[in-house]
């Protein structure tokens, strides 16, 4: 999937769809959230992968590249052997955090009701 050319068929110049499609994929918000709650400003790839154990190495790499392209994270490569690469949130990502935190609060408040509704739907289909 080419993550740089997500376009709405009806409104191809719509910036909202493009931004939300990239930001609201399966992993992006979780990576941003995890980078924010790290106890240090910069975090290495393997540390990030340990914090999100169900993400594959390939998917974490793709997600980090996309977040870097969109200016949510900065990637710093240190000229060492072996190379050390660290990731940190940008000011753009920090400005997004209150919205992510509100979404997390909303999800926590509504989780039980949503799960109950899912169970009702499953029972009604059987």
TrEMBL record:
Which keywords accompany this UniProt record? DNA-binding, Transcription, Transcription regulation
- Organism name: Riemerella columbipharyngis
Lineage, top-rank taxon, reads: Bacteria
Check the record and name the PANTHER family matching this protein: TRANSCRIPTIONAL REGULATOR, MARR FAMILY (PTHR33204), TRANSCRIPTIONAL REGULATORY PROTEIN (PTHR33204:SF39)
Protein known as: DNA-binding transcriptional regulator, HxlR family
Q: Which PROSITE patterns match?
A: HTH_HXLR (PS51118)
Q: Which SUPFAM superfamilies match?
A: Winged helix' DNA-binding domain (SSF46785)
Matches recorded under Pfam families: HxlR
Q: Which residues form the HTH hxlR-type domain?
A: 14-115
MF (Gene Ontology): DNA binding
């Amino acid at each position: 999937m080419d993550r740089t050319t997500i376009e709405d068929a009806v409104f191809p110049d719509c910036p909202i769809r493009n931004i939300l499609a990239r930001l609201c994929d399966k992993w992006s918000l979780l990576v941003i959230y995890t980078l924010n709650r790290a106890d240090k400003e910069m975090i290495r790839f393997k540390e990030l992968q340990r914090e999100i154990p169900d993400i594959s190495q390939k998917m974490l790499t793709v997600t980090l590249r996309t977040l870097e392209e969109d200016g949510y994270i900065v990637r710093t490569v240190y000229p060492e052997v072996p190379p050390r690469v660290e990731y940190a949130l940008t000011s753009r990502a920090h400005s997004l955090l209150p919205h992510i935190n509100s979404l997390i609060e909303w999800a926590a408040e509504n989780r039980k009701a949503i799960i109950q509704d899912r169970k009702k739907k499953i029972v009604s289909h059987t």
